[in-house]
């Protein structure tokens, strides 16, 4: 079909541009990624502590109104 070769050619050109940009890009992470990484890390710590902490048994009256 007409134009299929052009589409493939443009795809290869764009792929080469992206590879060149990736090679030239600085290797440092943005500061925002560090903040997100810290937030996710502390969330995982909090979830782990909640899972590791034993729950105290509740009386029937307290358990019924706890919802």
Major beta sheet summary = none
Distance between the termini: 65 Å
Helix content: over 70%
The structural class is mainly alpha
Total helical segments: 3
The radius of gyration over CA amounts to 27 Å
Could you give the count of β-strands?
0
Strand coverage percent: under 5%
Order of helices and strands: HHH
Instruction: Tell me the domain tally.
Output: 1
pLDDT averaged over residues = 82
Structural shape = elongated
Low-confidence stretches: none
Explain how this protein is built.
The model has no long low-confidence stretch (mean pLDDT 82). With 67 residues, the protein is mainly α. It contains three helices and no strands. Helices cover 72% and strands 0% of the residues. It has one domain (1-48). It is elongated and about 75 Å long. It has helices at residues 4-24, 31-52, 60-64.
What would the keywords be for this entry?
single chain; 67 residues; mainly alpha; 3 helices; 72% helix; elongated
Blueprint (SSEs and pairs):
Elements: H1 4-24, H2 31-52, H3 60-64
Short description:
The chain has 67 residues and is mainly alpha-helical. It contains three helices and no strands.
């Amino acid at each position: 079909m007409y134009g299929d070769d052009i589409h493939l050619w443009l795809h290869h050109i764009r792929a080469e541009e992206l590879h060149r940009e990736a090679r030239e890009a600085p290797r440092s992470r943005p500061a925002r990624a560090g903040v997100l990484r810290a937030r996710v890390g502390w969330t995982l710590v909090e979830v782990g502590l909640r899972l590791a902490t034993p729950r105290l048994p509740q009386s029937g009256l307290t358990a019924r109104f706890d919802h």
